[in-house]
Amino acid sequence: MATIVAEPTGIPVVEEHHEMSFIRKYIFSSDHKVIGIQFLFLSLFFLLVGGLLAMLMRWQLAWPGRPMPFGGLFPETMAPDGIMLPEFYISLVTMHGTFMVFFAIMLLLVGVYANYLIPLQIGAPDMAFPRLNMLSFWTAVPAGLIALASFAVEGGAAGAGWTSYAPLSGMPEYSGVSMGQQMWIVSLVLLGLSSILGSTNYITTVINMRAPGMLWTRMPLTVWALFITAILGLLAMPVLSGGLIMLLFDQTIGTHFFLPETGGQPLLWQHLFWFFGHPEVYILILPAMGFVSEILSAGSRKPVFGYKAMVGAIVAIAFLGFIVWGHHMFQSGMNPVLGTSFMVSTMVIAVPSAIKTFNWMGTMWRGNLHFHTPMLFAIGFVMLFVIGGLSGIFMASAPFDIFIHDTYFIVAHIHYVLFGGALFAIFAAIYYWFPKMFGRMMNDRWGKIHFALTFIFFNLAFFPMHTQGLAGMMRRLYDTSGYTHTADLQGTHLLITISAFALFATGVIFAINFFGSMFRGEKAPPNPWNATSLEWQTPSPPKHGNWEQAPVVYHGPHEYSHPDVTDKDWLAQNERPDVVSPAGH
Amino acid sequence: MNWSLPENIATYGGKIDALFWVITIVTGIAFVLVEVGIIWFCVKYRRREGHRAYYTHGSKSLEVLWTAVPALALVALGVYSASVWAYIKGRDAAPSESLHIAVSAKQFEWNVTYAGADEVLGTSDDFSTRNQLHFPVNRPILVWLEAEDVLHSFFIPQLRVKQDAVPGMTIPVWFEATKTGDYQIGCAELCGLGHYRMRARVTIHEPAAYEAWVGEQIAARAASGEPTVVAASADLGNDVGDGTGQHAGHDHSAGGM
Hints:
The complex is a heterodimer. Chain A has 16 helices and no strands. Chain A is mainly α. Chain A has a single domain, classed as Cytochrome C Oxidase, Chain A (Up-down Bundle). The longest helix of chain A is centred in the first third of the chain and has 37 residues. The two termini of chain A are 21 Å apart. Chain B is an alpha/beta fold. Chain B has two domains: 71 residues; 138 residues, Immunoglobulin-like. In chain B, strand 6 and strand 7 form a beta hairpin. Chain B is elongated, with a radius of gyration of 25 Å. The two termini of chain B are 36 Å apart. The C terminus of chain B is likely disordered. Chains A and B meet through helix 3, helix 5, helix 10, helix 11 and helix 12 of A and helix 1, helix 2, strand 7 and strand 9 of B.
């Protein structure tokens, strides 16, 4: 192949081949791959922290008032004699949600894979703004540390829920938490900044730096999903940041944006939070859908069924995602007529998710299914995301939401979407792209054991929460045994807690496989899955600058089992058409 | 484990429960279709040596079908839900013959003000109770819901009623019970460290018994001279556990209480 000199953006393909110091290479790196891996370690750490907080909550719910194991390690202000205090429980609820949503799932999906995959999948040498990218990572680190440190300050960590509804969040007199709540705000403002910097970068990179021939219609669905997610982040995050700063002012300099005594409006916080928060929900699922589309296609050895409809569904979800926020507020006191309109838009947003689900099934239909670990997690994603999607319809119906709003039904729902959905897709992605990131394979047998146990214990831990919700059990209760309508559900709590402990333990299998494979895994070939997209057409791991020769794209992203290609069942995006010349695409 | 909704004692509860069953059936069909389909595909199309996947980029007609069917089902569900929603939560949904009661929530108790014998709130024969709500069966009740400090949420599961209480707003909530008995109000919105024990006893009386109870309260008020606040006390501690106002002072860092 002739050397490709033409670079549409004028950015040299090969840059800085001089040796860099360790610090420039691995700590303050501007290489998108290193930054992606840095985000991976950071977010897995917060996944662990969020999980530990959940284990503490589960202990209290199963055995209210019984001393925790290692409870003596906690200070008097959290758990005197190892017995958890109600205010500590509320902090756990708040920080579990905060860490999982903002620092684990969002960073895993976007921080890790947008950084790592976008340049590789579109054939670019790096991000458009590598230093901005480095800044994005190094803003996220203090954000997470501030949130973590808030447990140690007087009054403890924030205690108004991950949604921090005002006035509870705005008035220390009401929550007993002052410093912790302010640190929560500062942490999320910083994280929002990191996210905005990242989004700007991803959008610019996708628009400007696609390799020659990488048409919009040839972009892998992962890139499409991450691109649209970045647009969501760029539009939604500033709204959260603005709201957070208003909340901080209410606490510190005496403004009354959300405090009613002097004309403020508590519902304003909810509108601002959910105007960000609902697009955020899709930030947390669209990339997952992208990974799954790609892994299902490679695992089934078939093109993605209905590629254009899949792209259309991503765009539709993103657009509709901005006009459904009110469904979090059906019972908030908002005008009920507004509730009706939000109910209709919410019903409509379920349609693109249905399209995606059926298209995933279409992708598997008449395929040649390889059940490697990433494929199993991708199939698991579809099976569990469907449950989370369908349970959402119960809440979308405003009159039925009257009953299940703020019950365990919503807790079950969010975990089916964020754990059964997003986290299963993240596991699929980690197993799938690990060889590219680290040059070694993860152990497939242990991967399958990890999948099977995670799938079983996930369902045992979260499915019963639907039944608790249907009984009317409210969420965020330190002790549910005082209510007559749920008093006999303590046995369900016990089942959930034991399953949750087992689920947490499956993480150990993953951790051993992850770190063990990093050093001792089988050496990975460039393209272990016989996949078509560009990142697999470069060494594992790719060198600084990604490409020996800049790729030129000739084919669609998921050309598996093309009838004109007879020697193998895949066609790389950059394979020259004079070598193989398939009809169409 | 529990697989159903709690007992329904509200006149409109049937509408909510019917909606539950309709959604369960519709989503149940979709659930079985997808899960069985995936498992079937996993078995049928598992990898076989020498086999090659069928090359296709999709099917217009299938995609139109599985876009249109869910869209129609969901819009129909939305329209159906909208009518139930308006009936229950519409701003003017409360029947005109409703008995008016004012409920004010604060950390971590429910204060209830009754209209007294004249059935008009804001007159001199009003009286209040703490952590207990009394009303008659078979009569629509219109609660004027307020909050003094933070958000709370007024939830009586068996009456299928839930409404956030918001400081600075007075929100009307109506319901009508079909059965007498003792139930509980729970707080469904995180309101601070005592959220889990912010509950009150609900007593639904026969109309005559309700009148008698109101009479007793007014007499007690007359005897003591000042507006009577009937606080929850030991006599109701038995079946509502320890969740009454009396424990409010026992907690640590009692901010704002």
